[in-house]
User: Fold Endonuclease/exonuclease/phosphatase family protein from Streptomyces gossypii.
Amino acid sequence: MARVFTTETEETDEARRSRSRAPARLLRRAFGGWGGEEGWRSARTWRRGWVTAVLAVFLGLALMLHSVIPNTIGNLGSLWETFLPWGGLFIPVLLLIALIRRSVTALAALLVPLIAWLSLFGGLLTDRGSTGGDFTVVTHNVNAGNPDPVATARQLKGSGADVIALEEIAGRRIKVYERELADAYPYHDVRGTVGIWSAHPLRDSEPVDIGMGWTRALRTTVETPQGQVAVYVAHLPSVRVQFRSGFTAGRRDVSAEMLGQRIEDDPVPRLVLLGDLNGTMNDRALAPVTSQLRSTQGASGRGMGFSWPASFPMARIDQIMVKGLEPASSWTMEPTGSDHLPVAASMNFPK
Assistant:
């Protein structure tokens, strides 16, 4: 009897051909077979896929009711709100499962998270900005370990902004930024690890206590040709995601309350807050600040405006917020040597 031997190469080729056919089989499974007995009117297509349907509804509720997700266990609510736009990535995953299962019930349930996500973030997908602006600002966490602060300073100076705010300035780098920005920004003030550079005169500059034991917030008055603007620069405490304790943000939350109270007491009607707040506009823990001010990105930004991490931005934790001014445009700038992207905004004075 003759024996047939299959070589290792033949086995490998056959396995490779099988793998190459796998996507086609998956597509046929997902998109084929919806006619006849397996059509959308079939009772079987409505009876199956209930687990996927429940997950879809749960996702929609988590998006719509994000503010009621409790923070009592590991600040889960704030963690979810920090990356809330990315919750939409679960929708195509559930869609694929629904198609593979050929479940009309699951497909119908997916309308819940889809509508929820679009209501929250659909408006952010467009460019809401306008041209011009009376007053332009830039904020940037320059990173204490920035390998090239000279290039960073020159890039920021090239923005032509009226005011530049910097956070996480290492003490030994202060002179570098002062030297590189001096010609375009003759007025500046640095307190602790934050600083402001302005093309217009500054007055009444002072540190702002946010409960950290050292200075990471500054308040000054910018004397623009159109009038006074109170400008705050702040770098709120960092947050961490740890296995045992969850989303640790207690110090940041306390600092947000202190900063919010200081802003509420400010007598100047036109106010700008610049800085790394280590939180997004959706995070309820920043409500003491965000409830008083308007995000320039939300009002006039280009897209989502994610600013961190610079290598693959996933969240906008670098904020520009205003009161008494009308946002005209807001955008994320090109990367520097920092792990954050600079963000900028132009605004108009009220007529």
Observations:
- The first strand starts at residue 135 and ends at 141.
